[in-house]
Amino acid sequence: MKRTLAVGAAFLCAAVGATSSLATDLRCGQYIIQASNGAIDYEVLEKCGEPTVRYIDRWIYDRRSQDGTIITLRFAGGKVTSIESSRDTRR
Predict the structure, then answer these.
(1) Were both Cys, which of 16, 21, 31, 64 would link to 47 (CB 3.0–4.6 Å)?
(2) Three-class SS of residue 14?
(3) Could you tell me the end-to-end alpha-carbon distance of the chain, in angstroms, rounded to an integer?
(4) Residue 54 pLDDT more than 90?
(5) pLDDT of 22 strictly over 50
(6) Which stretch of 5-9, 27-31, 59-63 has the lowest confidence by average pLDDT?
(7) What is the C-alpha separation between 82 and 73, in angstroms, rounded?
(8) CA distance 56 to 28
């Protein structure tokens, strides 16, 4: 599973010509999800909706059509531990 995830993430980044950086938060409408606060998975679902892709410990929100980004949230024990933002550089 982890190998599949790593290959899929690498392919996704390569396919979109993305640059990646760690983000401190994720904005979903009027809500802000912060890794530093350890947001809980059900809070993320409630505020941001279903992710484009959901793995056991990683959720991916593909927002290329909105703002050119792909957001990856990592979870441990049901809490957000990190947020990574990748931007499509082809825009």
Answers:
(1) 31
(2) helix
(3) 32
(4) yes
(5) yes
(6) 5-9
(7) 6
(8) 21
